[in-house]
Amino acid sequence: MQLYLGGHLNWYEPCKRGWITVPLAETTPLAAVLARLGVPASEVAIVTINRRVVALQDARVSDGDTVELYPPIGGG
């Protein structure tokens, strides 16, 4: 699976990369993948899987998927 950590979410990745490869042996809940990577689900506002917006709690991912995660954006 190709995973994009948008905004400040890449701070949870040790090398601070935006795109990372996450190998998956089987279809897995995205929330479980995030827990394994140390990315708090509470920090994720928008999830896309293969360019379709999905709800994080319902999302299941497979090895060939492209997943993008974005945090809430605030302005002032």
Features:
76 residues, 5-stranded mixed sheet, mainly beta, 1 helix
Overview in brief:
The protein is mainly β. The chain is built from 1 helix and 7 strands; from the N terminus they run βββαββββ.
Describe this structure as you would to a colleague.
The chain has one helix at 30-37, and strands spanning 2-5, 19-21, 28-29, 46-49, 52-54, 60-61, 66-70. By secondary structure, it is mainly beta. The chain has one domain (2-65). The protein has a 5-stranded mixed β-sheet with strand order 2-1-7-4-5, with no helix packed on it. A two-stranded antiparallel ribbon has the order 3-6. A hairpin with a 2-residue loop joins strand 4 (46-49) and strand 5. The chain is globular, with a radius of gyration of 12 Å. 16% of the residues are buried. The model has no long low-confidence stretch (mean pLDDT 94).
